[in-house]
Amino acid sequence: MPTLLIADDHPLFREALRGAVARVLPQAQLREADSVDALYTLVDAEPDADLLLLDLNMPGAQGFSALVHLRALHPQLPIVVVSAREEPAVMRRALDHGAVGFIPKSADAATLNEAITRVLEGDRWAPAAALSAPAAKAEEHDAAQRLRDLTPQQFRVLQMLGAGLLNKQIGYELGVSEATVKAHVTAILRKLGANNRTQAVLIAGRLALDPGAIVPPPEESD
User: Fold this and answer.
1) Computed over its alpha carbons, how large is the radius of gyration of the chain?
2) What confidence tens digit (pLDDT) does each residue in 38-70 have?
3) Ranges for the HTH luxR-type domain (predicted)?
4) Distances, alpha carbon 120 to alpha carbons 33, 79, 110, 146, in Å
5) Using an 8 Å Cβ cutoff, are 110 and 82 in contact?
6) Which CB contacts under 8 angstroms, 24+ apart, belong to 17-25?
């Protein structure tokens, strides 16, 4: 009895995915998450899951960062990206960062069925346009490699830095002291090879869907 994980913050789309999976695999066990934090908890609780259907725009992550980090933490878990961003370059980048498939959110039921079936059989699946798009840039692969070394908590802190939060605000959100946040930031800078939080956010920003739109965070003493 296969176990499939669905990670999407939109309840209506999770419902649509549940229906699609039920048609292909009526006996499948489905587990859901609506944020990156909930997803990490879910994946830890289901280490033998057969497939993760992952939305790119989950709260708590930007672009391909959650995909890259999950691939590092759980390399045995096949991940299919499901997204409303359907540009061929976005689909190709998802595949280059370790997804075994890409399903556009505009796909009809037959396409969803085919994609899920093919992936569960061990194949890759993506629209033909994805395969002819340019590969992800070398600097993007470099950023992905650095991001893989972060712990889940460091990943959360980095995403909050990218959202413009200061140490005190991050500590409040995570329920830890400001000193603990500073220690995390120091470790993040070291692992990413960054000199300050602005540089760290810009490195991680290479994995954003629109890297040029990344706004540097406010600087403060680390």
Assistant:
1) 18
2) 999 999 999 899 999 999 888 777 789 999 999
3) 143-208
4) 20, 11, 16, 30
5) no
6) 17/53, 17/82, 17/112, 20/109, 20/112, 20/113, 20/116, 21/116, 23/109, 23/113, 24/112, 24/113, 24/116, 24/117, 25/116, 25/120
Indicate if the pLDDT at residue 34 is higher than 60.
Answer: yes
Quote helix, strand, coil % in the chain, to nearest 5.
55, 10, 35
Confidence of residue 24 (pLDDT cuts 50, 70, 90): confident
| Residue type for position 140 | E
Checking if the pLDDT of 124 tops 90, the result is yes
Residue whose C-alpha is closest to residue 107's, from 89, 131, 133, 81: 81
